[in-house]
Specification:
This protein has 21 helices and 62 strands. The chain has 1290 residues and is of the alpha/beta class.
Length: 1290
């Protein structure tokens, strides 16, 4: 990165005091300061550490309204068009200026300080516009950052000083030449050029670009200042020069048009330019395209071309009063078509009304609030587009346009149909989508005698009214999508041919069927649909996602219906008349309650049959057999979907469907492989999640078979011979036995993840995922999912950078909404130039532990933009954590986008690009598409089992409940993720699909430590503590009772070994040891480490158990090792957790309680098991004995009364307690190991080596001295102290 070097004036000085004369003359009250800095090639980056001096930083910190503006010199906006252009640009080393100013500093003051005429603004590397002298650059930057989502003024000031922001907002001292339209640049390079035909002009090196229909010539230096010559080539000439080798002469079509001679370096290059330019000059001279050029005026050369009939000036910054401004367009005497959309004019150019030859005028997205009456002078106008403005009314003079046939008023502020439209007698198409209509007056449409097409999408329509009973015989196409209609009666539209009314709240729909051809009413609440008379011309009927309980009778009587979609309804049967229709080609009745199919008698031409997710137990045996006319009943069937039913077999007569190429029958009970491998056209077969046991394979498989899915058939075993036969299949999916790898064995105790990504039918994978299970070198984790839709670059960038950004933001703020929002916004900025045109959905999940609060549990923070979602499985039920930012799913975002005058196309996409309103990247769609995320935080509990992350394609085909149910009992997270992706593909997903499953093991079973006698709160709050006074000497319960076990162990920082007895009796008493309690510092588990000095921290160690049940670590009646337990000779090593706890004052339990039931109320719950702890030395040895007290049932000790599973559930213990088996159920963690209790043999005695006896005594004196107690012998039984307490948390 380039270093910032001081200019000739030396270091930057802070501004003068307010009383200084120079400062008082400034409107902003300060002096504008600057410094020249060098760029680093084309990266335009500055070194952060050397950008400011200490005095400058102190000056900025004094007021958040102060800041800096990077002022770029005149340069080409991007230098990547061609290599020659890049070399020409990098050869000029223009300076980069840093200007310190305030939010009140106007552009005129900065220009005066820099010696510039004007400042130019470029957003997102796109167009460049001139700033007005009164505009305030720093205020514009602050407002831009605030609109992105930054809220803290100090953070906004910091972000404004970041040079990476130049990819989104940049200021220039002179207008640069736009060279970033790569699709328009045909050829470019630096060549020797001579202007004119005479020999008076000299040959000079110039930058030559063939762009669109023009030849652009400029000097290498002036190409960065916008000083260029544009030569229109349409209708001109391109000739070879005979006097000079490898040279061409370019001339325009005008009488006095200039001529440029260009000399090339080689013959091949000259011929390439000649061929390309010849195509340009052969185009019609009547069409000139100058869109997206950042023009403020029309080039002078165009006015010499009087034959121009169509001029495209879309997406520029055209001015009114300039030599070639809009007021001069009347000079084109033959102009018929003019496109001035997206020019931000603000005011309607009245002089346009003098171009009487215009037949087509597009003035969309110009911020008009009203139209002048002079628009009525355009008598020849046939098409007028005024979309994306702020119009509320139309002038009456508009009714004079009797030739007008198409009027676009979409995305304005109309509350009713303008009366001027009634006077337009030739109007056929009226578009008023995205306005504020609440009532649809059909009477107005009746008075518009020539209207055919009306578009009222995305309004607030709630009802329809009609003034009279007169029918309308003119309207043929009506679009009412995305409104709030509850009832719709359009029976008065006698000639209605097509109706779109999706995504309303319709319950009843009434139409006229005389001419009805297509009806789309998906995603409503329809219970009845009435069409009268029977629509004899109806070909397509879509009624999916409604509440229909039966197929309407008029549908069965339609003779020409070809497509019928009634999926996601409440159908219980399919009428035989529908299934026997001689015109039906595609029938979709999936996701209903159909239990059986009618028996077919005749041949039908059905091609696609979708019966997925019904209640079908069997198919009719004659469904695929021959009809009476000796033809197959479903001879033309190509696709058959039977997924999600209860089928056990598929009739063997399916072999008669010779044209069948797709069979999907996953999630059934099919045990016999259907006879489909004989079909000549079969391509895709999905029989996953069934009960297949074997496959009968013919001698030769059909060569067309490309995809065979057999996953989820647990009883299916494929021999090597069968696999060899399947080897030619492009995609063969079968189950593979999961292997325990080193990574999985050493995974985190609290979470483990599995990731599956499938490309589907696309040739590239545009989904990436992020998984960091030891984030920030602590007990934290970060997971993410990124979906680039059609690009793979941005998901990869986010995968590599987003975790690092999160780590930086967490260090700056502890508030989840702050650091998560800033993570997304900073990642949005770091995308740089790649994020200007490309975008990506992003989902980030952060599992953290609040180190500031040692009593806190794990917290899950989820943030997302776009369509990636996270779902938490809590107690078997799905809990959505994300929000889908799309126009269909988020009414608030739809309202915001409409208010900002975005154009929403019919497929519900912003400007026809994306359905997302919030995503990372796509900065050129600002302010409609923003990177501000939705953030949601919640504490994790013991009921939380799984966390599922998925992209758009996954959740489009799977419901939350179905996804959770499908993988809840799958223990391997990788297998679970693969199952979700396979299910989505089985449901017809052909796009990229990604799924990540995180198995959670946190909550009450993850922490049972106590602080000052109180259990650390889990999700259920604190557990009560019972005190014991004057505790008697303990009697040890047997290990077989499942309550407690005596054990002695030698503990070190590397190993804890113990002997596990299997035949312990109740007679073993703790002789030689008292039941008093020894004081000690607070003990914590690995979840809640105590950072305070002087507290004993158990080091990671290995617990080794030696079992006398068998020599290999197996139980006497077991044949296989316990799963998860590694056997090594006669020792069994189990990696689990130690959870330590401490009680403050302990009261003795009455003797009577020892023989009563152990089931106590919640108020009697305790924190865990308590043992005496006596140190043998300071490092290596310790003895643990149980304190005589009743063991009470609590969330942390419930494992002692029943086996506690990882998800928090408890199952009753059997007659004998197998400690090794219990240990395998304990959560695994790298930072702690389980100390299993061992049985004391009767002859066991405490032995202290002679060389360590004095040291042990000294160690045991310290707790007494701290209390001021007497110096008694540490081995006396009547000494009262606090014991070491351990909660084994089994």
């Amino acid at each position: 990165m380039g270093e910032v070097e001081p200019g000739p004036t030396g270091p930057l000085e802070p501004p003068e005091p307010p009383e200084a004369p120079a400062a008082s003359r400034r409107p902003g009250g300060i002096r504008v300061l600057k410094r020249n800095m060098k760029r680093s090639g084309s990266r335009h980056c500055l070194h952060r550490r050397s950008r400011f001096s200490s005095r400058e930083r102190n000056w900025l910190k004094e007021d958040v309204k102060r800041g800096c503006v990077y002022l770029y010199g005149a340069e080409t906006a991007t230098a990547t068009a061609t290599a020659s252009v890049a070399s020409a640009v990098t050869s000029s080393s223009s300076d980069l200026h840093l200007v310190l100013c305030t939010v009140e500093t106007p552009a005129s003051e900065i220009c005066a300080g820099q010696g510039k005429e004007s400042l130019y603004l470029q957003l997102h590397g796109d167009l460049v516009r001139r700033l007005d002298p009164a505009e305030q650059p720093l205020q514009m930057v602050y407002e831009y950052l605030g609109s992105l989502g930054f809220e803290d003024p100090v953070r906004i000031q910091e972000e404004a000083t970041n040079p990476d922001l130049s990819c989104m907002i940049r200021f220039y001292g002179e207008k640069p030449c736009q060279m970033d339209h790569l699709d328009r640049i045909l050829l470019s390079g630096v060549y020797t050029v001579r202007k004119g035909k005479t020999q008076l002009h000299k040959w000079a090196e110039r930058l030559v670009v063939l762009c669109g229909t023009c030849l652009i010539v400029s000097s290498v230096k002036d190409c960065q200042t916008g000083k260029m010559h544009i030569l229109p080539l349409v209708g001109g000439k391109v000739e070879e020069l005979k006097r000079r080798q490898h040279s061409l002469a370019f001339s325009s079509a005008g009488a006095q048009a200039p001529t440029y001679h260009v000399c090339f370096e080689s013959l091949a290059e000259c011929q390439r330019w000649h061929r390309q330019a010849s195509k340009v000059v052969s185009q019609r001279i009547s069409t000139v395209d100058l869109s997206c050029y950042s023009l403020e005026e029309v080039p002078e050369h165009l006015f010499y071309s009087q034959d121009i009939t169509y001029l495209n000036l879309r997406h520029n910054f055209m001015q009114l009063e300039r030599p070639g401004g809009l007021d001069c367009l009347y000079r084109f005497s033959q102009l018929k078509g003019l496109n001035l959309s997206h020019n931000k004019l603000g005011l309607f150019p009245i002089l346009l009304c003098e171009i009487s030859t215009l037949t087509e005028l597009n003035l969309s997205c110009n911020g008009f609030h009203e139209l002048p009456g002079q628009i009525g002078n355009l008598l020849n106008l046939q098409t007028l587009c005024l979309d994306g403005n702020f119009l509320t009314t139309l002038p009456e003079e508009l009714g004079n346009l009797q030739q007008l046939s198409t009027l676009g008023l979409s995305f304005n502020n109309f509350s009713q149909i303008p009366e001027a439209c009634v006077k337009l007698t030739m109007l056929e198409k009226l578009a008023m989508a995205g306005n504020q209509l609440e009532v649809l007056n059909l009477g107005v449409l009746n008075r518009m005698k020539h209207i055919r097409h009306v578009d009222f999408r995305l309004n607030n329509l709630k009802k329809t009214v009609i003034d009279n009973l007169e029918g309308n015989k003119h309207v043929t196409h009506v679009d009412l999508r995305d409104n709030q209609l509850t009832d719709l009666d359009l029976s008065s539209l006698g000639n209605l041919q097509q109706l779109h009314c999706e995504r309303n709240q319709l319950r009843d729909l009434t139409l006229s069927g005389f001419t009805l051809r297509a009806l789309c009413a998906n995603s409503n609440r329809l219970t009845t649909v009435n069409v009268y008379p029977v629509p004899s011309l109806l070909t397509s009927l879509e009624l999916s996602r409604n509440q229909l309980e039966y197929v309407p009778d008029w549908v069965c009587e339609s003779k020409k219906i070809e497509v019928l979609d009634m999926s996601y309804n409440l159908l219980t049967e399919i009428p035989i008349r529908i299934l026997s229709s001689l015109s039906l080609r595609k029938l979709m009745v999936g996701h209903n309650h159909v239990q059986s199919l009618p028996v077919l008698l005749e041949h039908i031409p059905l091609e696609v049959l979708d019966l997925q997710h019904n209640l079908l137990a069997r198919l009719p045996d004659t469904l695929f057999s021959k009809a009476l006319n000796k033809l197959n009943k479903l001879e033309h069937l190509e696709e058959l979907n039977l997924s999600g039913n209860k089928l056990k077999t598929i009739p063997t007569t399916i072999a008669n469907c010779k044209q069948l190429h797709t069979l999907v029958a996953h999630s059934n009970n099919i045990s016999v492989f259907p006879e489909i491998l004989h079909l000549p056209q079969i391509q895709f077969v999905d029989l996953s999640c069934n009960d297949l046991t074997e496959i009968l394979i013919p001698e030769a498989l059909p060569p067309t078979l490309q995809d065979l899915d057999l996953t989820g058939n647990t009883n299916l075993v494929l021999e090597h011979k069968t696999l060899d036969i399947f080897s030619h299949i492009t995609t063969l999916k079968i189950d593979q036995k999961p292997l325990l790898t080193a990574d999985s064995a050493g995974a985190s105790t609290f979470w483990s993840h599995g990731l599956a990504e499938m490309a589907g039918q696309r040739n590239k994978l545009c989904v990436s995922a992020l998984a960091v299970e030891n984030f920030a070198e602590g007990v934290e984790a970060v997971y993410g999912m990124f979906d680039g839709d059609r690009n793979e670059e941005l998901p990869r960038l986010l995968q590599c950078t987003m975790a690092d950004v999160l780590l930086e933001e967490v260090q700056q703020s502890a508030v989840d909404t702050v650091f998560m929002a800033n993570t997304f916004l900073v990642s949005h900025r770091k995308l740089g130039m790649a994020g200007q045109k490309l975008g990506s959905s992003a989902l980030l999940c952060y599992v953290r532990h609040d180190t500031a609060d040692p009593t806190s549990s794990f917290t899950l923070t989820v943030a997302n933009v776009g369509t990636c979602q996270a779902v938490l499985c809590r107690n078997g039920q799905p809990l959505p954590l994300s929000r889908v930012f799309s126009l269909e799913h988020c009414p608030e975002e739809l309202k915001r986008v409409k208010e900002q005058k975005a154009i929403i196309t019919e497929d519900n996409k912003v400007n026809g690009v994306t359905c997302c309103t919030r995503m990372l990247g796509c900065t050129y769609l600002y302010p409609w598409v923003l990177p501000k995320p939705h953030i949601y935080s919640l504490p994790l509990t013991v009921q939380d089992e799984l966390l599922i992350l998925g992209n758009k394609a996954l959740w489009e085909h799977l419901s939350y409940l179905e996804a959770v149910t499908a993988v809840r009992h799958v223990h391997d997270p990788l297998a679970a993720a693969k199952k979700l992706c396979t299910l989505a593909q089985s449901y017809g997903c052909q796009d990229n699909v990604g799924a990540m499953v995180i198995c959670l093991n946190v909550g009450q079973d993850g922490c049972t430590c106590e602080v000052n006698g109180l259990s650390l709160p889990g999700p259920g709050g604190f557990a009560s503590t019972t005190t014991v006074k004057d505790a008697p000497k303990p009697t040890t319960p047997s290990s077989s009772s499942g309550i407690a076990s005596e054990f002695s162990s030698e503990m070190s920082t590397s190993e804890v070994s113990s002997e596990v007895g299997s035949t312990a009796s109740d007679e073993h008493n703790a002789t030689g040891l008292d039941a008093s309690l020894m004081p000690r510092p607070e003990r914590r588990c690995s979840l809640h480490p105590m950072p305070t000095l002087g507290i004993f921290q158990r080091q990671p160690s290995c617990a080794t158990f030696s079992s006398n049940q068998s020599d290999n670590g197996l139980d006497s009646d077991d044949d296989q090792p316990v799963e998860g337990v590694i056997t090594n000779g006669s020792k069994v090593e189990v990696e689990v957790d130690i959870h330590c706890c401490r009680g403050k004052g302990l009261e003795a339990s009455p003797p009577a309680l020892e023989e009563t039931s152990l089931t106590l109320g919640p108020e009697e719950d305790s924190g865990g098991l308590f043992f005496r702890f006596q140190r043998q030395n300071s490092v290596s040895c310790a003895v643990l004995l149980p304190v005589s007290r009743e063991l009470q049932k609590s969330p942390s000790t419930s494992c002692l009364y029943g086996k506690k599973l990882s998800n928090g559930s408890v199952v009753p213990l059997e007659d004998s307690l197998n400690l090794i088996e219990v240990a395998t159920e304990a959560p695994k963690k790298k930072t702690g190991y389980f100390c299993a209790p061992a049985q004391l043999e009767p002859e066991d005695q405490l032995i202290v080596p002679h060389d360590l006896e004095e040291e042990v005594k000294e160690q045991l004196k310290h707790p007494q001295d701290a209390r001021g107690g007497a110096d008694t012998e540490p081995w006396e039984e009547d000494r009262v102290d606090h014991s070491e307490e351990f909660d084994t948390a089994l």
